[in-house]
What we know:
Low-confidence stretches: 244-249
CATH topology of the largest domain: Aminopeptidase
Distance between the termini: 21 Å
CATH architecture of the largest domain: 3-Layer(aba) Sandwich
CATH class of the largest domain: Alpha Beta
Number of domains: 2
Largest sheet: 8 strands, mixed
Helix content: 25-40%
Order of helices and strands: HHEEEHEHEEEHEHEEEHEEE
Number of helices: 7
Amino acid sequence: MQPNVTEKQLKELYNAVFEDEADFCDRFFNRFYHPLNVYCKTEEGKLCSALHVIDVTLKDEKRFYRAGYIFAAATYPEYRGKGYMGELIKDAIEGAKNKGTDMLFLIVAEEGLKQYYKKFGFVSVSDEEETELSASNGEVESISPEIVAELLNNEKGVSIYRTKDHIKDLLYVYGARAYRNQKGMCIAYKAGNIAVVPKYVGDISVCSEVCTTLKAEKVLATKTAGTMVLPISENAQIKGCFKLNFILN
């Protein structure tokens, strides 16, 4: 990161561009921010554009992959159209190559952005949509980060490898808890009268039954346009399911 860009400036950019609650931004910076993992563009001393690259480990049935998750790519409206974000993405790709990263990935907020990221070599590997469910009767139990990590790491296909500390950080950032029933699991938090499942639907029955536990009227699984991946090393041959469980976005 450029030395003249402060954490305060990065937070101001985040809050100006994204609609997340201020507490989410603070919690994210508390757990995942590192100045060496941020790419910035300034103009006359003012921060114009920035993106974060969070180091994560992906896994499939055969091996582990070193990956970088591009998060919070943002540009102030008055500086858009100048190519700043494109420069930062190229810088992030070059940085990933220098670190020996196998792949970069990101979650696309809007369908229209897919064409933009394709220009840099990203390919779509999954699509997601917003899901709204009514509450249903049933019991779910709250489970510990250790159990969440175990369940997630046993999933087939390509997914993020999680330790209990990773899960603790993610639950902290979202202000959420993890739940399960006999069919599956999800994480959720309450916002007003709605149970929110952030970026990960989980089993439908778990999501709807969480409403009862949280005394909410309905559950909302937040919307993204899907996941895109940029293979960097020869090892990054992604095939089959690509489930990015519990990613921040």
